[in-house]
């Protein structure tokens, strides 16, 4: 097994964390404050290109949409009694055609506008090819994290980042570690991950924790967030599940007495749990039907996981800047799809639900043949 690539913890803006090496004792006036604020993690997962506010896949669900998501996040950030960190657990770009039409790049610009702090690499981040997955690192203005994704023995993405929202406050730093499901090797086209290796998640995450703690100077970090795109599906090997990771982290002596939050994705599950006395687990489901939130009190190891449902955002005013960006993306997409491919077809295509759902039809054959042809490339 190749040796571990070094981890370079960074701040939320991807610059190296600054830690004082001055041995002189600071005066009491200059001493950093001890944090008394709540830490609130606002998070999303498996959005799959749900840029626009709309009805969900069934009549009981709705999609928040990016413009209202931006407002919800903005409202959390304006609260004076808390520190807010915004995270995504992967599969942000591939999904609906409106996002796929730009290979997810338009939605990446939206996430920049919302000003996320970090994002995990999901399996669908590879669906437009390895070069596009690498390009996301260039487009995004925040760290794209995966501790267990390697090419030629070197990590393809940053393993971790350290977010420090207020350098005048001591103890409020948040270590964020990303991890990607090894199922990616079989859940995207093989050509997309040629030469890419996905190592076992649990050992990789613990190795990164060990590396970070070895590099820490002065007081060790007390808050760790694992952005996991692992899920809890029973079809996923047990050692690759987010729930197994959370359980193992709760037992690790490396993290004893630390606050640990696992923000998960991949299985599209709505689930909130705690493990042991220090690990909080949260997953929002999928498609921006919910926004996740974990609140950590200053003197508590366990957080309070919760969800903001789309139905609770009905009266939320969309963020003007993000709405303008969304409207521009939709207008461009609509124009591209208004192009007439065949002006007059001599054949009537049978597309009524009562036909296509129960029997072979000529429209079904056109769609199937088109997908097959596309899949060859």
Overall morphology: globular
Radius of gyration: 22 Å
Q: Tell me about the largest β-sheet.
A: 6 strands, mixed
Write the element-wise H/E pattern from the N-terminal end onward: EEEEHEHHEHEEEEEEEHEHEEEEEHHH
Helix and strand composition category: alpha/beta
Strand content: 15-25%
| Alpha plus pi helix count | 9
Please report the total strand number as a whole number: 19
Amount of helix: 25-40%
Mean pLDDT: 91
As laid out across the biggest beta sheet, the strand order is: 7-6-5-2-18-19
Spans of at least 5 consecutive residues whose pLDDT stays below 50 are 1-29
- What's the end-to-end separation, in Å? 33 Å
Descriptive notes:
This protein has 377 residues and is an alpha/beta fold. It contains nine helices and 19 strands. The chain has helices at residues 66-77, 97-100, 105-114, 130-139, 201-215, 242-251, 320-336, 353-356, 362-375; strands spanning 33-34, 38-44, 54-55, 62-63, 82-88, 118-120, 144-145, 149-151, 154-155, 160-163, 169-170, 174-180, 196-198, 223-229, 259-264, 270-275, 279-284, 290-296, 304-309. Strands 7-6-5-2-18-19 form a six-stranded mixed β-sheet, with helices on one face. The protein has a six-stranded mixed β-sheet with strand order 10-12-14-15-17-16, with helices on one face. Helix 4 (130-139) links the parallel strand 6 and strand 7. Helix 1 (66-77) runs antiparallel to helix 7 and helix 3 runs antiparallel to helix 7. Mean pLDDT is 91; it is low at 1-29.
